[in-house]
Specification:
191 residues; mainly alpha; Four Helix Bundle (Hemerythrin (Met), subunit A); 6 helices; 81% helix
C-alpha cells in the first residue's frame, strides 16, 4: 500500500482529466452530429469538470509542493488536446472558423519553442508568460461559451455577432501574446 504522503494528488487530477477527455469528446461528437441536446448538456457538464480539475491540480501542486516536470507536461498536453479536439469538432460542424483552430495549434508551438531551447538535461522546462496564461484561460472560456450556445441555441443573429466578437478578440489577444513572446523570448528563456 502506498502511503498517502507519497501520492501526488495534482498528477492524479491531471490523469483523471486525461481519462475523462475521450468521454467528453464522445458526448460532444454525439451531441453535435446527432443534434442531441441531452448529450450536449452532458458534454458541457463534463467540460466544467475538466476545467475544475485543471484549476485544482495547479492549486494542489503549489500548495502541497508536488510540482513535477512530468505533471506539468501532462497538464499542458491535456489542456492542448482538450482545446484542439473541441475546436476540431466545432470547425467540422461549422460552429467555429478554421483559422481559430490554426491559431490554437500555432499558439501551442509558440509556447513550446522557447521551452525546447531551454531544455535542461533530459526534461523540458516549460516557459510560461502572463499573456500566454491569460490566452489559455480565454480559449478555455471560449469552448465553454460555444458549448453553452449549443445547449441554449439563442437567436442566430445575436449568436453570430457575439461569436464573431469573441473570435476576433481571441485572434487579437493571440497576436499581442505572440508579439510579446517574440520580443521577450530571450528574457523568458533566461528566467
Amino acid at each position: 500500500m502506498i502511503p498517502l504522503k507519497n501520492i501526488n494528488y495534482a498528477n492524479c487530477l491531471t490523469l483523471i482529466r486525461i481519462l475523462l477527455l475521450p468521454v467528453y469528446l464522445l458526448f460532444l461528437l454525439s451531441g453535435l452530429f446527432g443534434q442531441d441536446t441531452k448529450h450536449l448538456l452532458i458534454s458541457l457538464f463534463l467540460y466544467l469538470i475538466l476545467g475544475l480539475t485543471d484549476f485544482l491540480d495547479g492549486i494542489l501542486a503549489r500548495k502541497l509542493e508536488q510540482s513535477t516536470d512530468r505533471g506539468e507536461i501532462m497538464d499542458v498536453l491535456s489542456d492542448y488536446f482538450l482545446l484542439s479536439a473541441s475546436y476540431v469538432l466545432f470547425v467540422v460542424t461549422g460552429i467555429a472558423p478554421v483559422w481559430m483552430l490554426l491559431i490554437i495549434i500555432g499558439k501551442f508551438f509558440l509556447f513550446l519553442f522557447p521551452s525546447i531551447i531551454v531544455k535542461s538535461g533530459k526534461s523540458f522546462v516549460l516557459v510560461h508568460d502572463w499573456p500566454g496564461k491569460i490566452g489559455a484561460v480565454l480559449y478555455s472560456l471560449s469552448v465553454g461559451v460555444i458549448l453553452l450556445y449549443t445547449v441554449v441555441q439563442p437567436e442566430s443573429v445575436i449568436y453570430s455577432i457575439l461569436m464573431n466578437i469573441m473570435f476576433l478578440f481571441l485572434f487579437a489577444w493571440s497576436i499581442l501574446a505572440t508579439i510579446y513572446r517574440v520580443i521577450f523570448w530571450k528574457q523568458l528563456v533566461s528566467n
